[in-house]
Structure formats: C-alpha cells, structure tokens
Automatic annotation (TrEMBL):
This is Interleukin-22 receptor subunit alpha-2. SUPFAM superfamilies: Fibronectin type III. Keywords: Disulfide bond, Receptor, Repeat, Secreted, Signal. GO terms for molecular function: cytokine receptor activity. Belongs to the type II cytokine receptor family. One of its GO terms (cellular component) is extracellular region. It comes from Rhinopomastus cyanomelas (Common scimitarbill).
C-alpha cells in the first residue's frame, strides 16, 4: 500500500495553472516525477467558484498532452474558476492537482492593438484595431476586447534620430484613427502601440513596429 501511495504522489501533476491571452484560456500542467511514461493519461475537470460539483471536460478526458482549452467553460468572465487534473498510468491514479483561482476578466493578458500606417503629406494616419476575443457575435465575427474592457490606446513614435529606447508617447485615448502631423520630410518614422487598461493599471506588450519614410 505504501509503495502505491508513493507512486500516486510521484505521478501527481505539477504546476497546474491557467494561461490566458485575450480571454483564450487554457489549463496547463507539468507531469509528476513518475509520469514520464508514455502510457500516462490525464483527466481534467473545472468548476466555478462556489459550485459544489466538478464538471468533466470531455475533450480532455484521458489525453496525453499537458494542456486543455477551457475558453468556453470560463466564458462568464467576471466569475472565478478552478481547474484540476489527475494522472492515470497502468491503472494507478494520482490524486487531483488543483489550480489557483482564475478570474478571466482580471487574469487574462490583453494583447497589443493591430496598427496600420498610411502616410500623407508630412503626416501619418494610424488605424488601430483592438485585439479580438474568442467569443463570437451572432453574425459570426469575433467580438473585440473593447466589448469587455474600457481600453485606451497608447501610440509611440520612434524616429531615426533616436534609438529604439526613446519611444515618444504621441497619443493616449480611445480613438481608432489618429493623425500625427508636422513630421519632417525624408525622415523615417516607426510607430508602436499598446493597449492600456486604466481599471487594472496594466499595459499590453508593444505591437510590432510599422516604419515608413514621410
């Protein structure tokens, strides 16, 4: 019995945690010390905080991988959730490993906006598009993250007289189309943008650089 208990402990999945980007939320874990064997399979359950019964995730029931997509199971994004995982190998089952509490609205990472740059006479016109969530409108397109958050855009300019570290903030606000005027002809300018969430005081990573010569 003792050997069996030790084996069960050694098989138990480690570091069970939610990873979430733009509300695409997946549960990740690492195999236990004794779960390197290729015949180990994993079983995933989830529940909303306050619920007494766990729900099994059918697509993640007896899987070999170490990740399970729970995006739609956690779609009530203001609610806290838990996930748990157990490992089974050669008819020996580990105990369940529990994740920390996960609240999608607070815990998801919001990505940068998509930026399109058009230049016209000594100015740049920027079009900003919020990242998309995985949840769809009735017409089928994915809802933008602005449906769920009060997002601001931060736009920075880098021109070739300055190095990469000197990003000048030229705009912060909600507008999707911005004009940056009075630029010097013949100078190459690069633009990057972030989304900023005032309520949580959090910024995204920078968007990829868009460069153009005015």
């Amino acid at each position: 019995v003792l050997e069996n208990r030790e084996l069960r402990d050694a098989m138990k999945p480690q570091k069970v945690e939610f990873h979430s980007l733009n509300l695409n939320s997946t549960l990740h874990w690492q195999p236990g010390r004794a779960s390197e064997a290729s015949d180990t399979v994993y079983f995933v359950q989830y529940k909303r905080y306050g619920q007494s019964t766990w729900q099994s995730k059918e697509e993640c029931w007896g899987i070999h991988t170490h990740v399970c997509d729970l995006t739609y199971e956690t779609s009530d994004i203001q609610e806290p959730y838990y996930g748990r995982v157990k490992a089974v190998s050669a008819s020996v089952s580990s105990d369940w490993s529990l994740s920390c509490r996960f609240t999608p609205w607070r815990d998801t990472v919001i990505g940068p906006p998509a930026v399109t740059v058009v230049h016209s006479n000594k100015s740049l016109i920027l079009k900003l598009q919020a990242p998309r969530s995985p949840y769809r409108r009735k017409r089928g397109s994915n809802k933008p993250m602005t449906n769920y958050y009060d997002l601001l855009y931060q736009v920075f300019i880098i021109h070739n007289l300055l190095d990469e570290q000197h990003r000048a903030l030229v705009y912060e606000g909600r507008r999707k189309v911005i004009e940056i005027e009075d630029l010097r002809p013949g100078v190459s300018y690069c633009v990057v943008a972030k989304t900023y969430l005032p309520k949580l005081d959090r910024s995204s990573a920078y968007s990829s650089r868009q460069c153009t010569v005015v």
